[in-house]
Structure formats: structure tokens, C-alpha cells
């Protein structure tokens, strides 16, 4: 391992841990909002199912973050998917439409 890679190791690990904790929380939140809007269930059932599914999403995010080639790719994937889910979940409510 080169000297530069050894110096980057603690920062890369810290970045992955922050991505797993903070990015995982944000992605789980947006996935919950998305599922609450689009699931074809009764209102209470949608909320319960989406809330329980967010734990599986957060677990998948933690696995993905530490399996990604780099911390930058992990952050990019989280931000991209989180942005898409947030747009899909919150944009219809801005226009007064609900699927």
C-alpha cells in the first residue's frame, strides 16, 4: 500500500461511517416518504409498512456504503437515489396531486 493511501485510510473510513449513519438515515427517511405516498394500501397500513421497511433500507445502505469502491461513490449513490426518491415523494404534494 502506498504512503498516500495509508494517509487517506482514516478519512475514507470516517467518510463511510458518516455516509452509513447520516446518509442512511436520510435515505431511509426519503424511502419512507416515497412508500407512504405510492403504496396502494389504506393510509394507516401505508404508514406502518413504510416505517418498518425503512429499517431494511437503512441496513441495505450500511452494507452498500462499506461495499462501494470508494467513499465518494458511496456518497454519490446515496445522494442520487435520495434525491430521486425525495422528488418523487414530495413533488406531487407541491402541486396538490396525490397518486
Topology:
Elements: H1 3-38, H2 43-67, H3 71-94
Helix pairs in contact: 1-2, 1-3, 2-3
Overview of this structure, please?
It is a single chain. This protein has 99 residues and is mainly α. 86% of the residues lie in helices and 0% in strands. It is built from 3 helices and no strands. The longest helix is centred in the first third of the chain and has 36 residues, at 3-38. It is elongated and about 50 Å long. The mean pLDDT is 87.
Write down the secondary-structure element order.
HHH
Number of domains: 1
State mean pLDDT (0 to 100 scale): 87
Distance between the termini: 53 Å
Rg for CA atoms: 16 Å
> What is the strand tally?
0
Describe the largest sheet: none
Low-confidence stretches: none
Strand content: under 5%
Which geometry do the CA atoms define? elongated
Oligomer: single chain
Query: How many H/I helical runs?
Result: 3
Percent range for helical residues? over 70%
Structural class: mainly alpha
Quick summary of this structure?
The chain is mainly alpha-helical and 99 residues long.
Keywords:
single chain; 99 residues; mainly alpha; 3 helices; 0% strand
Amino acid at each position: 500500500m502506498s504512503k498516500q493511501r495509508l494517509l487517506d485510510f482514516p478519512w475514507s473510513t470516517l467518510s463511510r461511517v458518516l455516509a452509513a449513519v447520516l446518509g442512511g438515515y436520510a435515505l431511509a427517511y426519503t424511502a419512507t416518504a416515497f412508500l407512504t405516498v405510492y403504496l396502494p394500501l389504506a393510509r394507516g397500513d401505508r404508514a406502518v409498512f413504510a416505517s418498518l421497511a425503512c429499517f431494511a433500507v437503512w441496513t441495505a445502505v450500511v452494507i452498500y456504503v462499506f461495499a462501494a469502491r470508494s467513499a465518494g461513490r458511496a456518497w454519490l449513490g446515496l445522494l442520487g437515489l435520495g434525491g430521486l426518491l425525495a422528488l418523487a415523494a414530495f413533488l406531487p404534494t407541491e402541486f396538490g396531486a396525490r397518486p
